[in-house]
Known about the structure:
Blueprint: H1 7-16, H2 27-35, H3 38-42, H4 44-99, H5 103-124, H6 135-149, H7 153-164, H8 168-172, H9 183-202
Helix pairs in contact: 1-2, 1-4, 5-6, 5-7, 7-9
Amino acid sequence: MYKNALKEDLIRVVEDLDGTVESTDTIAKLKTKIENSSTFESDPDFVKTLIPNCMDERVSRNEREATLEKQKIELAKLQLAQLEKEIELQTAKNKALSLNPAAKVEEKQFGTNIENMIKSIKTLSLPVPTRSENFNLFFQSLERAFLTKKINDEYKSEILINLLGERAHNVLLYIKKEELNDYEKLKSIVLREFQLSRVFKLI
């Protein structure tokens, strides 16, 4: 009944049987504690089921941790790629400004316009919801604001990412760099991810 069980699995079983685990306990000692427990004496089949259950929990936990670590790495790669792109863009801008000083005024005006668009859309739309079931209403209000302000498609994704703030991190894990300017794609990923987070909370 101990096939493929690790020491940490046996420790969990002993604890679940209300036993005491010492730091010096060996695998053999843990097995003895399990077999000498009152639960094993009264219902050995239950204990035989408990052992593989603890093993399954350990495997699932390790898989979740591995997935989370992979997501962190992917996010770091994406952030690095964005940083490299920003540096490349800034280098090109600096070169252009050195050749055409008048472009500096245009660049400043462009940055101000983006900031103003974000502020006005934020004022006209609902706040980013904390409950996943409210995201449909959020997008309805956001798209009405886009229509009201006549926002070009090329700016919609950037505005959405700014409105999401830190919550955009999960979304950016699942979108390719070339899709960052695709508002409809970004919207579908947001709806999917926050719907999934709701399901996991229910579970």
